[in-house]
């Protein structure tokens, strides 16, 4: 394997990790801090992408303005849903899951009603750079920087601000935090809004490289959940570590064909062979299989395992 | 669950009697539609078995359903021309679904993955299988003569690739020794055998599930639902009981999938889609997760509602002289009706969770229990009279109601 192949594979791994971090960060925040499985997270992602689309297509704003707007719009949407629905269901984890799934279907339906069931693209101006014989999109480097920035931002927010301290106190012990004068329902609301906003940011930043379509969230939600479940209870560290492990697996299996199975079909150029590995969906299948086996060994996920060891 | 069991039996009988009479009282179309509602009902019941029984929410029932359908299709297509029956396909489909459920169940329950994680894993399984079956469009995805066909669904392939003579998944066909020719379970003008097959499987699976829940397995599972730690402390291996119930409910879902493939003579990756997974949960949630009959009731209600909404096409043409705001309003209502199945599912999920936690059947059963004599002596003759009338009036085309 030549040096430029190594380089391009490394970049693809970085890209897989980036996408998993972007997808999982908001979900991990909501799940890790509030113990809520938010199945509407995929549609928050979609809403972020559609905010960018609306801003660019219909309001004729520049792309970056649309991307800055998206997290705030989606956070507002998340806060509204928390106030209207999720607030009534705290302490009933299964019902929250079902209700957010209902919200997810309603949002897909509403977005389809408004924008139609067509795939739309968002044009952007960045080109490619060269790695030896290969060319690689510059925009993916931008995505990696944004993902890193978001993680750092969340860390600083929860570590060093008054909001972060209150939110962590609320998560650790709601009654005690309430007794100490913290408005805990407000903290839950803001945390949920923050998680939704992060999904909106992910949708906005990924909108130019994927087709914007009302059902796009469904394509990513499985990977996001696998990342969160493998990551375990510690939000940032868990997400980063599981995204790193899973990203390597996904990128490698997606790129390289492991082996081939011959079949007895009628192919245009014979012989008929199924190549195991070497395409994007084998990457996803490998992700799922790895996650199931890993959870059999470490039921608490990666960060739960480390926490036990300490 | 226990308290209402006598009312549930009565309700099941009240539903069964008219269903037995349907092929005589209605046109084949009705039998066809009711058959698919019952197939969805079996699938939904398999979910309420594991959800209502052991408190485990599985989004993966549709995965087992789809695997059962695909396995039946693949084996059946290869078998039908060689052996003119589908015995092995029925066995293979059931085996495939059971095996998948057992493997997933082993990893989930013996890994002691908590309830919420288990739900997520089953959902991820369904979504990944969807991605997998969608991408099987190429020529190389073929088992014998059965082409997977990607999004277009499974078909049999003729001998030559130039002249692809596609044929469909066979209906359930039996050819036992001593029979002069194979017997196909179809639903058409001549025969309602397919309908009765689905009805018989529905009744059989319902009885099996009722028996399971009343057996030791079911009682321990209910104990796990209420308080897993206490059941474990009494010396029960809770992992095994959850695993066993999950595998059985997966097998029942796979059976429903086989019936579906044989009923529609077709299967495509939509069976693994999020929409289908959602509708299964919606059936159970609306019908009531604590009763096994709830799945059937929910499937019939939602199935009827969505097919009814699907037929409405409001404002098929918008005249050009309409005021712009009026035209926009008409266009919006058209789009809303087009998206109605999704919107109905979402609204039912949110609405039932917020307002009607147990679904609609438990209150109905309570009503029936309170007026059990009324149920027997008034409802039953009414049902018999109505269906007798329908059956008699069909030929002469003189139906009053």
Would you mind describing this structure in some detail?
The complex is a heterodimer of chains A (310) and B (401). Chain A is built from twelve helices and four strands; from the N terminus they run ααααββααααααββαα. In chain A, α2 packs across α3 (63-84). In chain A, the strands form two sheets. Chain A has a two-stranded antiparallel sheet. Chain A has a two-stranded antiparallel ribbon with strand order 3-4. Chain A is globular. The model of chain A has no long low-confidence stretch (mean pLDDT 85). By secondary structure, chain A is mainly alpha-helical. Chain B is globular, with a radius of gyration of 23 Å. In chain B, the strands form two sheets. Chain B has a three-stranded antiparallel β-sheet. A two-stranded antiparallel sheet of chain B has the order 4-5. The longest helix of chain B is centred in the N-terminal third of the chain and has 27 residues, at 28-54. Helix content of chain B is 70%, strand content 2%. Chain B contains 14 helices and five strands. Chain B is mostly helical and 401 residues long. At the A-B interface, α4, α9 and α11 of A face α4, α5, β1, α9 and α11 of B.
What does this entry show, briefly?
The complex is a heterodimer of chains A (310) and B (401). Chain A is mainly α and 310 residues long.
């Amino acid at each position: 394997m030549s040096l430029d192949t190594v380089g391009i594979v490394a970049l693809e791994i970085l890209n897989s990790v980036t996408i998993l971090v972007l997808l999982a960060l908001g979900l991990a925040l909501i799940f890790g801090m509030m113990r809520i499985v938010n199945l509407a997270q995929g549609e928050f992602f979609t809403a972020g992408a559609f905010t960018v689309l609306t801003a660019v297509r219909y309001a004729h704003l520049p792309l970056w303005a649309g991307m800055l707007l998206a997290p705030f719009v989606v956070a507002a949407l998340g806060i509204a849903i928390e106030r209207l629905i999720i607030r009534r269901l705290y302490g009933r984890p299964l019902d929250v899951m079902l209700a957010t799934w209902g919200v997810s279907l309603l949002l897909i339906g509403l977005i389809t009603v408004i924008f139609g069931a067509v795939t739309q693209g968002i044009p952007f101006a960045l080109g490619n750079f060269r790695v030896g014989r290969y060319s690689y999109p510059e925009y993916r480097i931008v995505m990696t920087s944004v993902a890193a920035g978001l993680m750092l931002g969340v860390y600083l927010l929860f570590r060093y601000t008054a909001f972060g301290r209150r939110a962590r106190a609320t998560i650790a012990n709601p009654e005690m935090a309430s007794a100490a004068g913290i408005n805990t329902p407000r903290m839950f609301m803001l945390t949920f809004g923050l998680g939704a906003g992060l999904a909106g940011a992910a949708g906005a930043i990924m909108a130019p490289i994927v087709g914007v379509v009302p059902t796009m969230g469904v394509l990513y939600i499985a990977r996001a959940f696998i990342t969160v479940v493998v990551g375990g209870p510690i939000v940032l560290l868990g997400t980063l570590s599981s995204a790193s492990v899973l990203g390597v697996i996904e990128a490698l299996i997606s790129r390289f064909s492991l082996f081939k199975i011959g079949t007895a079909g009628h192919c245009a150029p014979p012989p008929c062979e199924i190549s195991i590995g070497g395409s994007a969906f084998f990457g996803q299948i490998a992700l799922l299989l790895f996650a199931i086996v890993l959870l059999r060994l470490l039921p608490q996920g990666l960060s739960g395992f480390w926490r036990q060891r300490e | 669950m226990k308290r209402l069991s006598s009312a549930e039996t009565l309700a099941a009988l009240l539903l069964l009697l008219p269903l037995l009479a349907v092929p005589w009282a209605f046109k084949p179309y009705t039998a066809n539609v009711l058959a698919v509602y019952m197939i969805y009902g079996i699938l939904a019941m398999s979910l309420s078995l594991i959800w209502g029984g052991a408190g485990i929410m599985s989004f993966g029932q549709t995965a087992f359903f789809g695997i059962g359908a695909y396995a039946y299709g693949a084996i059946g297509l290869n078998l039908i021309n060689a052996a003119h029956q589908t015995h092995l396909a029925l066995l293979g489909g059931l085996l495939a679904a059971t095996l998948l459920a057992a493997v997933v169940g082993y990893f989930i329950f013996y890994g002691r993955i908590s309830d919420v994680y288990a739900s997520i894993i089953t959902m991820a399984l369904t979504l990944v299988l969807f991605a997998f079956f969608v991408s099987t469009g190429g020529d190389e995805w073929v088992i014998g003569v059965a082409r997977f066909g990607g999004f277009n669904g499974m078909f049999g392939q003729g001998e030559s690739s130039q002249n692809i003579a596609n044929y469909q998944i066979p209906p359930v066909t039996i050819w036992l020794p001593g029979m002069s020719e194979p017997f196909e379970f179809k639903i058409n003008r001549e025969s309602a055998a397919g309908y009765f097959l689905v009805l018989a499987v529905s009744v059989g699976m319902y009885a099996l599930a009722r028996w399971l829940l009343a057996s030791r397995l079911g009682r321990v599972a209910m104990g796990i639902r209420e308080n897993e730690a206490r059941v474990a402390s009494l010396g029960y291996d809770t992992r095994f009981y959850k695993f066993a119930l999950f595998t059985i409910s997966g097998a029942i879902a796979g059976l429903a999938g086989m019936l579906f493939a044989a009923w529609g003579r077709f299967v495509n990756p939509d069976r693994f889609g999020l929409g289908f997974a959602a509708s299964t949960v919606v059936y159970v949630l609306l019908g009531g997760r604590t009763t096994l009959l709830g799945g059937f009731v929910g499937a019939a209600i939602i199935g009827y509602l969505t097919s009814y909404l699907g037929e409405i096409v409001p404002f098929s043409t918008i005249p050009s002289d309409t005021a712009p705001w009026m035209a926009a309003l008409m266009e919006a209502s058209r789009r809303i009706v087009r998206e109605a199945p999704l919107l109905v599912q979402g609204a039912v999920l949110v609405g039932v969770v917020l307002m009607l936690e147990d679904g609609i059947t438990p209150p109905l059963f309570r009503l029936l229990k309170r007026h059990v004599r009324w149920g027997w002596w008034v409802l039953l003759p009414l049902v018999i009279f109505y269906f007798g009338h329908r059956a008699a009036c069909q030929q002469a085309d003189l139906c009053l109601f």
